[in-house]
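Lecture notes, unit on protein representations.

Consider one protein chain, 138 amino acids long.
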Amino acid sequence: MSRYKSEQTAYSPLKKKYVPLWKLDTNTVTVTHFDAVTQTKESKTYHTDFIRYHLHFSDSHCPDRLRRLVNEGRIVQYLDDMERKVSEAISRQVELWKQTDSCYQKAVLSGDSVKMLGLENCFVSMASEAVFECMIYV
């Protein structure tokens, strides 16, 4: 279990000890924040494959970057931005292929929804492969 903890801590009366303000668990793909003012703990779990792949890649290839993001309290913003940008990049590429692929256009004209869906799934897979190389494994 790869867990990153911020160096900054706050006292938790509930646990009767100092706890880190930020934690990242790369196995469960969860970020936990302890709010020292309200004494509450908030967790956010990411469910997309590409965030999981990126965290596991970063854990083994550049753990200092993850450690820094957790220490600075910027890990949620970083992962949210990555999730948004990767999703947008995949969607843009899929839309490009849908507009230019002759097989897809023929399926649209004939109303063949099964063929359209199959091609869209293929486009998503191909776009994911290309986008992952550029945006996830860095």
